[in-house]
């Protein structure tokens, strides 16, 4: 009789322990926010942000990781300063093949593969007045500055090319200029 009572007690205890079990939710949550996060709608106003704004502006003077600011302004005086004094930093190594590859991707469509100003867009008269490098008085600093900010009809390529890549293209443009003479 004692064994039957023990078996019934064990069955009752196991029935009691499993009766609250729900497969869709854990029984006890140690960190409930991990299971049921607070939802935020994208671009929505929320009380978390001061004044109920959509988000916060980065602190003034912050620079994104891996970005080096270019201090010369986008003005005619800045162009003249870059042309006269800007030199490639010593820590940037030049890879001529990479410079040629980048030039052919981003520049040759207008400037031509030889730098003669006869790229496909210039031939089809989509852009008029694309300069021939042999007619220009350019330096590596002026080329870097123009790639960074753009000039006349040419837009900035700073978003497409990193600082190192812009220096490689500038070096390759100088090689093309030397070959055109």
Description of the molecule:
There is one protein chain. With 181 residues, this protein is mainly alpha-helical. The protein has a domain at 76-180: Cytochrome Bc1 Complex, Chain D, domain 2 (Orthogonal Bundle). 43% of the residues lie in helices and 0% in strands. The chain has helices at residues 2-18, 32-35, 76-85, 96-106, 108-111, 120-123, 140-149, 163-180. Helix 3 packs antiparallel against helix 7, helix 4 crosses helix 8 and helix 7 (140-149) packs across helix 8 (163-180).
Q: What is the number of beta strands?
A: 0
Structural category? mainly alpha
Name the helix and strand elements from N-terminus to C-terminus, one letter apiece.
HHHHHHHH
Shape: elongated
Number of helices: 8
Distance between the termini: 112 Å
Any idea what the radius of gyration is? 32 Å
By CATH, the superfamily of the domain at 76-180 comes out as: Cytochrome c-like domain
| CATH topology heading of the domain at 76-180 | Cytochrome Bc1 Complex, Chain D, domain 2
């Amino acid at each position: 009789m004692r064994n039957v009572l023990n078996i019934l007690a064990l069955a009752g205890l196991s029935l009691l322990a499993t009766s609250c079990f729900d497969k869709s939710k854990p029984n006890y949550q140690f960190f409930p926010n991990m299971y049921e996060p607070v939802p935020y709608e994208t671009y929505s106003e929320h009380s978390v942000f001061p004044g109920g704004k959509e988000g916060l502006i980065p602190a003034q003077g912050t620079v994104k990781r891996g970005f080096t600011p270019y201090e010369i302004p986008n003005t005619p005086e800045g162009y003249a300063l870059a042309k006269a004094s800007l030199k490639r930093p010593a820590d940037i190594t030049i890879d001529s093949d990479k410079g040629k590859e980048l030039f052919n991707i981003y520049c040759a469509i207008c400037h031509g593969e030889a730098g003669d100003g006869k790229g496909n867009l210039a031939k089809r008269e989509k852009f008029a007045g694309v300069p021939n490098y042999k007619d220009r008085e350019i330096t590596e600093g002026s080329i870097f500055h123009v790639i960074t900010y753009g000039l006349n009809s040419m837009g900035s390529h700073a978003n497409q090319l990193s600082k190192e890549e812009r220096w490689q293209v500038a070096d390759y443009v100088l090689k093309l200029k030397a070959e055109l003479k």
